[in-house]
Amino acid sequence: MRAVRSALAALVAAVLLTVSAMAPAVAAPAAVRAVRGGPEVTAIEVAPGVRLRAEVHAPAGPGPHPLVVMPAPFPYPAAHQDPAAGRLAAAGYDVVGYRPRGLPGSGGAFGMAGPRDVADASAVISWALARTPADARRVGLYGTAYGAGIGLLAASEDRRVRAVAALGGWVDLLDGLYGGGTRRRAHPLFRAAARPGAVRPDPEVRRALREYAEHPDPTPAFRSFARARSPITHLDRLNAHAPAVLLAHTWSATVESPNRNGRYFSRLRTAKRLEYRRDDHATEAPPASAERWFDRHLRGRPGGPGTEPPVFLEARGRPPGHPGEHYDDLWATASANHVPPLEPRTGPDPVIHTGPDRGPHADAPSPGHGTAALWWTSPDPRPRRLRGIPALRTRVTPSAAEGTLVARLYDLAPTGTATLVTHAPYSFAHRAPGTPFEASFDLFATVYDLPAGHRLALVVTGTDPLYVARNPPGATLALHSAATGLALPVR
């Protein structure tokens, strides 16, 4: 653990030295104006001395038009949202896309969706309403990834926002960074913020990067930092403002678990829709969903999202192009619990020697020289439709007071091909070495169709490239097969 902490600390130190030497140069056009037929590249002054690069896409006709403001994502290219913005403008929307502070082309320092970034979104709305023929009663926010988080936060503060489309964003930054008691290595926000030249972090973000590198558990200051930037903290205010909210995600996203997103969605008390699709992050969340959402809630057009049940899910384990499924709630997808018998493949009480591992997307569930424990089910004579959150229980005897388990569930075909179904980390601390304890935790929610004749394989390891494990060097984790079981939600 000391080696891991030292490596993380060294990375953050190098980043901070790099960013402190960077000049906050911003290319700002001399004039600020909107034109028909855009996009027009311009700059918007949101605070004294702080200008944000913006692109204005203007529709034909005199207006008034509905307005869509688009905070840009990162580290995607600047033009990532241009196709969607162009389609919205062609459909009759005034569209203003902008790059948040600290991103290339904009002034100020990167606040990781902090209070200044939220205030900037409102300032851009005000700028657009003053300089375009936009209708102040029909304002939407559209964001992907980083822009999605800013959009949800800004809608919680600004009553003028009547619709939000958040593609691939987050709702709970603390859960995304420390869920399961385990730090993430690959959270896109922190990964991009720690890359030299990507952004210019403000002092608060720099402190958070340092704390994250040095502490396996979140400090009180880090908790405060994360909560301020988490839409779930401001949910009551969002419900009071009652904008229509679209959340779109993919099953393999590393920003946050669908478990937390589902809880947030269940607590929304407004017009809402949740989509989960295949592949990673926001790459497959279709802009068409956002465009249909705005057409319904900003233009009053019938049909589309809002007339269907509010949860749309694409099942994994099916061929591309298979139609998705609609439900009233993410937790209404299962109708029963299936508890399959598990056959131990690495002995009744396998001992995991913590060490390097190939990660959750390994091609096959292999115990690999004592670095993993393996159980599997008998081949299932009928197909199983897994829908919801699998729960794992086991008994652990650790050799050290703290440690990490990573559980992975695979679809194991008769040919031996393995496909990851879901996974989750679990970390513990302050345990008595050599004394067993019960560990029960949820895996990440999934929608997966297991074909007839396939097995489920459960692999438990002590390390994973996605996570910062808490196992000391040379530590072991003994698992007890008799106390290990899975509860699978099925439909």
UniProtKB/TrEMBL annotation:
Q: Which UniProt keywords apply?
A: Hydrolase, Signal
Q: Which Gene3D superfamilies match?
A: alpha/beta hydrolase (3.40.50.1820), Galactose-binding domain-like (2.60.120.260)
> Could you list the residue ranges that cross the membrane?
none
Concerning InterPro entries, the annotation shows: AB_hydrolase_fold (IPR029058), FrsA_esterase (IPR050261), Galactose-bd-like_sf (IPR008979), Xaa-Pro-like_dom (IPR000383), Xaa-Pro_dipept_C (IPR013736)
| Signal peptide as annotated in the record | 1-27
- Identify the domain of life: Bacteria
Q: Name one Pfam family in it.
A: Peptidase_S15
Q: Where is this region: Disordered?
A: 297-379
Q: Where is the Xaa-Pro dipeptidyl-peptidase C-terminal domain?
A: 291-489
Question: What's an example of a GO molecular-function annotation for this chain?
Answer: hydrolase activity
- SUPFAM superfamilies attached here? alpha/beta-Hydrolases, Galactose-binding domain-like
Q: Which family does it belong to?
A: Belongs to the AB hydrolase superfamily.
> What's the protein here called?
CocE/NonD family hydrolase
Lineage of producing organism: Bacteria, Bacillati, Actinomycetota, Actinomycetes, Kitasatosporales
